[in-house]
Amino acid sequence: MWTTLLLLAIAVNFEPTRVALVAIMISGPHPIRQTLTFLLCAFGLGAAVGLLVLFVFDVRSFGSSHFDSSIIQIGIGTAMMVGALVIGTNIAAKWRARRSPVQIADAEDGQVSTDASPKGLKGVATRVHGQLHGKKSWFSGAAGLILALPTGEYLALLALIAVSDVSETVKASALFVFLAIANLGSVIPLVSYFISPVKTRSAVERFKNWVLARTRRQVSAVLAAVGLCLIVTGIT
Q: How confident is the model at residue 235 (pLDDT cuts 50, 70, 90)?
């Protein structure tokens, strides 16, 4: 249980969307308020869902044969291996390109271009940047809630904790250990900002650029390694 918990919690901190949002909030005019709102909303929703699954819904009532800890670990690892394959081979993008090729006719010469206009994407990015840099914190809170929505891996992890042969106190501790590690990507910049705002902004920006610069094959390799580790742990 603990191996799966730690691996998944560490992986959460490298989600490109999460890293980019934290970098934007830290570089804004109200970094502490924006980042703290984002952190509290993400942590709060994750804790609420976790406590409901662990202590309100009785997972064991569905039958122990359906919820075995080793099977859950192998299932999570297999899902990550499949995700690594999809990312590494870029199957989804290739399939979309075959299904709906973008063709934009030039009004002047009638030529057909396959380049999509970036105006839409730039407009969305500008609005997101503006909302996160605004005086209100509702957007950063909404972003935290959206990113904290339970994924299949998180629900599988909760099922793994629920069926583990440990006390209720240990189960609750495991939940909050996971949430604490998974939100380090927000906690560390927030604490560091109190000490050195300029260095924190620079470090967060460098980390964001490093994460976003990873290639599909590098991301795929990391996912495959984590998935293989979980499968081996489940088997043993």
A: confident
